[in-house]
Specification:
Belongs to the bacterial ribosomal protein bS1 family. The protein has a 5-stranded antiparallel β-sheet with strand order 3-2-1-4-5. Strands 8-7-6-9-10 form a 5-stranded antiparallel β-sheet. The protein has a 5-stranded mixed beta barrel with strand order 11-12-13-15-14. By secondary structure, the protein is of the alpha+beta class. The chain is about 30% helix and about 25% strand. It is built from 8 helices and 15 strands. The longest helix is centred in the first third of the chain and has 26 residues, at about 5-30. It is elongated and about 95 Å long.
Length: about 350
């Protein structure tokens, strides 16, 4: 069949009519009153009046293009190692947690970085959906992913807290979780601390201290060397010192004898009876006068809270020089009387050392 030009025009008109009718049916179905009329004046793309209208529309938004660029820059994050950022936990996995910190790719926190303390799993610390601070550990990897840590934040804050406690000369209580040949191990604010054997003051064997809570004082706090050293003895001495005074007579028990003197237990803390403070007479070795487990009276002659030391004397209690060698019981019987004389002597010395008043004419 041959199609004439007039037939082609008629077919085209019919198609236009069908399209127009379809558009009206669509508008009716959408419930919109669509205005399909073509405006008499349609501005072209290069019409200056069209660009002016666009600028006017932008002005009506409420902020300038510079302000818009500034707003976008707030979301152009530049994450660096060492930064602390807020993030949202959105997935807990076997090897770590996925964290949304606003970067192009979700950040990852390994399970070993979840806490400074030992935990059974991520769910002990993290809850999906929670927002908290994270430490950025490294640059982005080849996949654009950052590594995060909570442990680093806790570590930094723990050292800050420990330094403050040391500055305040605070007494803390901590549980012994292990012992070794050198002493005992504890945790302070999540940090591992060490108590040297010489600073453990107890009648228990070291191995029996595990799970015991001990009062402790700080000896050394060094973050750079990761050294946290504490003293049980100092804490006990300080506590005892609060109830002791120089010139006081106390009952003690000999716990150890060294060439330079004897260690006397006076109610849970040790004081040193130096060889030079045993008697006015010369003594070759403390063993010639004292025995381990001897009970005796001693007088306090010095309290050094900073070093945790109590210095003792029986020499000051001797009625006559050498009585500790010939008749120690006489020394103990007269102890309180001799201590009173000692205190009076200290008082007179203090008065003599007071500066003289100056009178101005």
């Amino acid at each position: 069949m041959t199609v004439t030009p007039s037939d082609t025009s008629t077919e085209a008109l019919n198609q236009d009519a069908i399209s127009a009718e379809a558009e009206l049916d669509f508008a009716a179905a959408m419930g919109d009153d669509l205005d399909l009329a073509i405006p008499e004046e349609v501005p072209t793309a290069d019409d200056p009046s069209s660009r002016a209208a666009s600028r006017n529309d932008a002005d009506g938004v409420g902020f300038t293009l510079d302000e818009f660029a500034s707003l976008l820059s707030k979301y152009d994050y530049n994450f660096k190692p060492g930064d602390v950022v807020n993030g949202t936990v959105f997935a807990l996995e076997s090897k770590g947690a996925m964290i949304d910190i606003g970067a192009k790719t979700a950040a990852f926190m390994p399970v070993q970085e979840v806490s400074i303390n030992r935990v059974e799993g991520l769910s002990d610390v993290l809850v999906p959906g929670e927002v908290r601070e994270f430490f950025i550990m490294s640059e982005e990897n080849e996949d654009g992913q950052l590594s995060l840590s909570i442990r680093r934040i806790e570590y930094q804050r723990a050292w800050e807290r420990v330094r403050q406690l040391q500055k305040e000369d605070a007494t803390i209580y901590s549980e012994v979780f292990a012992t070794n040949r050198g002493g005992a191990l504890v945790r302070v604010e999540g940090l591992r601390g060490f108590i040297p054997g010489s600073h453990i003051s107890t009648r228990k064997a070291k191995e029996e201290l595990v799970a015991d809570f001990l009062p402790l004082k700080f000896l050394e706090v060094d973050e750079e060397r990761n050294r946290l050293v504490l003293s049980h003895r100092r804490a006990l001495v300080e506590r005892k010192m609060n109830r002791l005074e120089v010139g006081e007579v106390v009952l003690g028990t000999v716990r150890g004898i060294k060439p330079y003197g004897a260690f006397i237990d006076i109610g849970g803390v040790s004081g040193l009876l130096h060889i030079s403070e045993i008697s006015h007479e010369h003594i070759e070795t403390p063993h010639t006068v004292l025995n381990v487990n001897d009970q005796m009276k001693v007088m306090i002659i010095d309290l050094d809270a900073e070093r945790g030391r109590i210095s003792l004397s029986t020499k000051a209690l001797e009625p006559e020089p050498g009585d500790m060698l010939t008749d120690p019981q006489k020394v103990f019987d007269k102890a309180e009387e001799m201590a009173a004389r000692y205190k009076q002597m200290l008082l007179e010395q203090a008065e003599d050392n007071e500066p003289m008043g100056v009178t101005l004419d």
